[in-house]
Structures are given as C-alpha cells and as structure tokens.
Amino acid sequence: MRYMLMRKADPATEAGELPGQGVLEAMADYNNRMLEAGVFVTGDGLRPSREGCRIERRDGQVRVTHGPFAETRELLAGYSVLEADSLEAAIEWARQWPAEDGDVTLELRRYFSLEDFAPGPGLDKHRAMARLPSELNVHLCFPGNCREAMTFYAEVTGARLEALITYGETPAARDTPPERHDQIIHASLNVRGRRLMGADMAGHAYQPPQGVQVHLDYEALDRAEAVFNRLAEGGEVTMPFGATFWAQGFGMLTDRFGVPWLIGCQTGQCPMSEEESQP
C-alpha cells in the first residue's frame, strides 16, 4: 500500500528559510534507511506558497489566486511517498522523522487504489491506463564474473546491492555442476527503485550484450563524468565524455565486463545557444 507522508508548513518554511546542513544530512540518512528497506518511493520539499498559486473553478469560471496564503499550518512544506504493508508500518517510519527538523506536524494519508472503486466504464478507463508494467528493469548476463561486476557497479554508482544469490543457495543446485554453485543465479542492484539485475550463465548459454546499452543520467556534470571514467577503466571508450547538443555531458563506453553504457548529464537539455545550434 502506498502512503503520502506530508510535512506541514510553518513560519520558517513559509519564510523560505532553507534547512541547515545538519537537517539535510539527517533527512538524507532517514530517506536512505527507508530506501534500503524498500519503503521510500520519492520525496521533495516545496518552496513557499508565495511562489505558488491556487486554481479554483466556481460556476464554470476559473480563478487563479497567487500566494502567499495565510493559513500556514494547513499548507505543505514537503512530502514523502512510502510503500508500506499497513498504516501501522507507515506510522512507525513517520515516528522516525529526524529530530533535527525540530517541532513538526506530519500527516499520513493512504493512496486510493483501483480496487477501492466499483466496477464500471470509468474504472475500465483507468485500468486501461494502468496496463503499463509497474517496473522496467535491465537484466545482464555474465560468463562467471557477475559477483565482481555487480559489486563494482554498486561501488561506482552508490546504488544498493540488494541481492547476490548463488546457484548453490537455491533448488537449482541439484541440477547445477558443483563448480558452478558459487556463481550468481540472481543479482539485483537497486538504483532509486529501478533495478539492474544480472546472472552468471553457463559457457554455452552466455552471449555478450549486443544492440543494447545501459543508460545512467545525472544532474551534476562532475558526478556523471566521474562515473564515466570509473566505468571506462579497463574498458573501451566509444565516445569520449563531453558536451553535446542534447546533453551538458554525454559519453559512450563498454566496460571491462563487456557491458555497454551511455552516461549523461541532463540528457535532453541542450547546452548550446541558438547561434551555436544554427546550421
């Protein structure tokens, strides 16, 4: 079940006062604990209401009212979206809200799900929209070095290596030669809820990746370039990392494990001026 944990506004947040480093660090640690527990989906802070507005429709007329708004305690300063098994489980996480944030008011609300509504044409339209898969993940095959590769990827990206399961730890052991029992049947690297998965394949079943590349995109240029350089160690650079007309930074490489990568910074945002982009 999905819940929204809302942090109510107060005079400080409405004044636009930014949290100090202590609060930022505590919130990052808190979110990371939830991320590792598979609870944290997303979360953001909101700028003061003076930078926002309300849109109301009355008697067919739409009215836009710009902030700030007086009822501070009814406003939101931020929110987190949690995936929890029950309201009680979500409350336990809410209780752990960092003390460094001082006296706060939190509100916890469960999302509606499609199962809450009566069958009918309206629900059918929403179910049609929900036919998309809940996740899109990438699975890589390795010739026997899956453990080394996935551990390296976790180190480089900072993502959480949530699974490294060997053949010998599963019922597949009885059908697997003993020398392969220590190889990986399932590895999973959790990258903000998206997963890079992998497994070791028997010699005759392994094929190097062809026609596919793993894409990582970063907001910070220096971070994107650092990841590119680490992945390129011992590998082959196809396109050196640098500014392009579609990204502040972008590069292509195949790492030492034979996995092709696209590494970008704010891909889709052109860094060039209009004059530079003219043919």
From TrEMBL:
Pfam families: 3-dmu-9_3-mt, YCII
Gene3D superfamilies, sorted: 2,3-Dihydroxybiphenyl 1,2-Dioxygenase, domain 1, Dimeric alpha+beta barrel
Domain YCII-related residues, every copy: 1-99
Alphabetical list of InterPro entries matching this protein: Dimeric_a/b-barrel, Glyas_Bleomycin-R_OHBP_Dase, PhnB-like, YCII
SUPFAM superfamilies from the UniProt entry: Dimeric alpha+beta barrel, Glyoxalase/Bleomycin resistance protein/Dihydroxybiphenyl dioxygenase
Record-annotated PhnB-like domain positions: 137-263
Family to which the UniProt record says this protein belongs: Belongs to the YciI family.
PANTHER family referenced in this protein's UniProt entry, alphabetically: BLL7171 PROTEIN-RELATED
Protein's UniProt name: Putative glyoxalase superfamily protein PhnB
Species this protein is from: Halomonas ventosae
